[in-house]
Every structure is written in C-alpha cells, then in structure tokens.
Amino acid sequence: MNVYKVGGAVRDRLLGRPVTEVDWVVVGSTAEQMLALGFRPVGADFPVFLHPRTGEEYALARTERKSGRGYGGFVFHASPDVTLEEDLTRRDLTINAIAEDAEGRLIDPHGGQDDLRGRWLRHVSPAFAEDPLRVLRVARFAARYAPLGFRIADETLALMRRIADSGELEALTPERTWKEVSRALLEPRPDVFIETLRRCGALAAWLPEVDTLFDTARGERLLAVLRRCAEGEQPLTVRWACLLQALGEDDPVEGLRQVQAINLRGKVPRDCQELALLTVEFHSAGRRAQALEPTALLDLLQRFDIYRRPQRFAEFLAACALIADETQDVPAAIAYLRSAADAARAVQAQPLVARGFTGAALGEALREARLAALTRHRDEAAPRPSA
C-alpha cells in the first residue's frame, strides 16, 4: 500500500499559498484493509475514508466511467490494481493532477507543474467533458487564481462550452450547484466567475435572467460591483444581493418575481434569499431616503426587522453603497438611513407598558412614538436656512 498527497495541497504548496486541507490517495489497498486500520468510510458506495486521528480524507485510487447524466452519473472502479497515474488521469485540471510521495517527490504525468508556471487552467483529458460540474469548478478556480494571472486554456474553454450546449448543466442538483456558486462568489474575483460562465454559455443555462443584463451596459456594471464586493470582503449574502439587484432596476415588481424564481429553483439559503429580495424591493427607496416621509421610512425599517435583525439592515446598506454609481449621493442617503434606524431603535416599549399600554394598543403606541422619533430625525437632518 502506497499513500500520496494529491490535489489542492500539492498545487497550493507549489504556488506558495497556504495549505488549508490535505487529501490523500491510496494505491494498492482495499476497503477492507482501510477499515481494519481504523479508517471510517465517508459513504456506503464511495471509496473515501477518514483518517482515525487527523480526520483527513484518504481515497482509494480509482477509475470512473460515465453512466448517466449530471454530476452523479458515474460508475467507480477502485481496486488494488488501479495505478496512481490512472487515478490522476480522471482529475479535472492538470494543476490538480500532481501527486507527492512520502519523500516529497512529485508525480506529474500531465504537465501540471508547467501549467502552474505558465498560469494555465487546462483539462487533463477529454473525459473532462463527462462531468458538467467541472464547468462551475473551473470557473471557480479562475475566480480564485485570477490575481495570480491564471487564465483558462482555449481548448478547455471549448469543452466547457460543449458541456453548456449539451444541456448537461440542467442535470446538476440545486444543492451541488449552490455549493460551487457560493464558494465562487466568495473568491477574490467573483466577477471572473460570472464572466467565465458567460463566455462558455453556462450563465445563460444557469442564470438566464442575469445573462440578459450583458445585452446592455448593466452587465459590465455588475462585474464592477462584484469586484468591489470582493475588495470590501463582503459576506455571501451581500454578494448574492448585488448579483441580482439589477434585475429590478426597470421594473421592481418583475425583478422581485425573477429573484424569487431564482432563489426557489436554486434552493438558495434563506438569509441570501431574503437580502436579495429586500435589496431589489427597497434599493430605489434607499437611494432617496432623505425624501421619504416618516411613515414610508418606518415601513422600510420595519420590513428589515431592524430591532431583532440589525445585521440584515447593515448588509442592505453595504449593498446600496456597492451598487451606487458616481451620479448618486448614496453615502449621504446611507448615513441618513443608519441614523434613522438608530432613532427608531431608541424608542423602547417599557415606558409605554408602564403607562398601561398592552396588546394592540401597545403596538400602535410604539408605532406612533417611532413615527415621532423619525419626524424629529428628519427635521434635525434638514438643511438649515442661511442667516
């Protein structure tokens, strides 16, 4: 039995990047031998095991054959006679198909080191086209390594385009798609992820609503907004909201419908869903916050539930700042909204309870007190006439 370090741990060490997790491939062993050594199986039908002490993944060397549509449509063959080179050949990119033995020697049958030096993302073999998930995965790697100068080889982009044209992307489960998308949006260049999907036709298959934005200048603006998200190290919720916000610029009602449809078919987590919908609905009002009547302003703040979920409102303000263009005095509007939220939160229920308010009457009294606070806030923020 021989054990080799493989994949990202080898790649990132050679790039001088931090290694956050280590994967191993085991050649010349069986599932029974792994279990006898105390390894824990990850799944019933998949030859991957967790080390009994470190918890790192050890996979039996295997080959695979396409047997159906989508990411899961493969038959695996793992046995002691599968060689390391055969295992490396089934991997996606040459830079991920480098192994390292116990003495630190590199096994690199597909020129991965040359592609690391040349900054190329290049597929290992034509079998790349059998797995539609690799379209999203390579676009994610492009988003991660763009700051280092990496780009996708023409022949690999052509294979990605062939997969997109085949309709295979539609066979991916929403859960697996979201896992790749969410990781990609958090990479240093999420704009490269979207642009890569657009270049190979995958954006039209996955997010046709966003793809149509590139028929206008809004597409390029979207890429710039995503770059600013990464530069500001914004969380996933803000990045998802910024990705979808432009859908409601012309018609907020239609934009809300589209965002709701995207969220539902993608099984997007609730926090991302909610912020995206609220941003589409209230972004326009937020830009002209100083002109809102206290009633409209209070309704906006209530919709964000600023009393129990202040972070969501803070993320909305962050999204508004990122989306703003040079013609809008959005910083002033954001400052106004932030101080208005503080004024509304400062109104407490306890004094009203002490005065005998309960039930619906308490709720109405709270609303009136908050409206009064927002009216004072508006009057105090209004420019004073010169003497």
Lay out the secondary structure.
Elements: E1 2-6, H1 8-15, E2 23-27, H2 31-36, E3 40-41, E4 48-50, E5 57-60, E6 62-66, E7 74-78, H3 84-89, E8 99-100, E9 106-107, H4 112-118, E10 120-121, H5 133-145, E11 151-152, H6 154-166, H7 174-185, H8 190-200, H9 202-206, H10 208-211, H11 218-231, H12 236-244, H13 252-266, H14 270-287, H15 294-303, H16 310-323, H17 330-345, H18 350-354, H19 359-381
Parallel strand pairs: 2-5, 10-11
Antiparallel strand pairs: 1-2, 1-8, 3-4, 4-5, 6-7, 8-9
Helix pairs in contact: 5-7, 5-8, 8-11, 11-12, 12-14, 12-16, 13-14, 14-16, 15-19, 16-17, 17-19
Plain-language structure description:
One of its GO terms (biological process) is tRNA 3'-terminal CCA addition. Keywords: ATP-binding, Hydrolase, Magnesium, Metal-binding, Nucleotide-binding, Nucleotidyltransferase, RNA repair, RNA-binding, Transferase, tRNA processing. Belongs to the tRNA nucleotidyltransferase/poly(A) polymerase family. Bacterial CCA-adding enzyme type 2 subfamily. The protein has helices spanning 8-15, 31-36, 84-89, 112-118, 133-145, 154-166, 174-185, 190-200, 202-206, 208-211, 218-231, 236-244, 252-266, 270-287, 294-303, 310-323, 330-345, 350-354, 359-381, and strands at 2-6, 23-27, 40-41, 48-50, 57-60, 62-66, 74-78, 99-100, 106-107, 120-121, 151-152. It is an alpha+beta fold. Among the domains are: 1-130, Beta Polymerase, domain 2 (2-Layer Sandwich), CATH 3.30.460.10; 348-377, no CATH class. β8 (99-100) and β9 form a beta hairpin. α5 (133-145) packs parallel to α7 and α14 (270-287) packs across α16. The longest helix has 23 residues, at 359-381. The termini are far apart. The mean pLDDT is 92.
